[in-house]
Amino acid sequence: TPQTTYTLALRGSCGAAFSNWSEAITFTTWETPASLPYATDFEIAEDNSAWHFTGTGSNVWAIGTATFAGDDEEGTSAYISNNNGTSHAASIGSFTMRYMWQDFDFGSGDDVYNLTFDWKCTGYLDGNDLFGGLVVVLQNQGDPMPTNGTFPDNDNIVAILYGENAWTSAQIELPQVSGEKRLAFLAFGYTMSAEATTPAAID
């Protein structure tokens, strides 16, 4: 069953004799790709559990209440955090690449879709070199995910965002998309203060 948690233990058998049970392990099956149209404000736990994150330690994606778009007194978003979601903050140090992703079913019609979300993220461009930012990636579900040290293929990049300290709206057209796809957000950088002032966040 998709998105279900199981506990598994094994033991051997030989006729009427049985060995001791092995140490139990717990695992959760992957969810089926989300159908469209899709919307989330990151405030429903079941929806949030369908998003996957790469990396551990400092400067990782988290879903929490440290920052959010809009004028309400309370809210939730996904953002880079250096303390497991308590703060929307990044530590300056070695180069970091963190992915947040979920699978979606775009059907079979080669339709045009619109991807809309709020975002903020510093970073800056020096000549042709981008230091820090937020990359939006759409790739085939079966393709390998880029690792934390690998930039995605150019053909799979649909947007590169940077240089905004305040919440900003993005509207991205996805033409002729079909099949099961993986939508990923890549946050990278955090080697200097100009990249870490406002870490990546989406809502």
Describe the 3D structure.
The protein is mainly beta. It is 4% helix and 45% strand. The protein is built from two helices and 17 strands. Strands 5, 6, 9, 13, 14 and 16 form a six-stranded mixed sheet that branches. A hairpin with a 2-residue loop joins strand 11 and strand 12.
Main beta-sheet annotation: 6 strands, mixed
Q: CA-to-CA gap between the ends?
A: 29 Å
Class by SSE composition: mainly beta
In N-to-C order, the SSE pattern is EEEEEHEEEEEEEEEEEHE
Q: How confident is the prediction overall: mean pLDDT?
A: 88
What is the quaternary state of this protein? single chain
Strand content: over 45%
Q: Can you tell me the overall shape? A: globular
Number of discrete helical segments? 2
Task: Describe, in short, the structure shown.
With 203 residues, the chain is mainly beta. Helix content is 4%, strand content 45%.
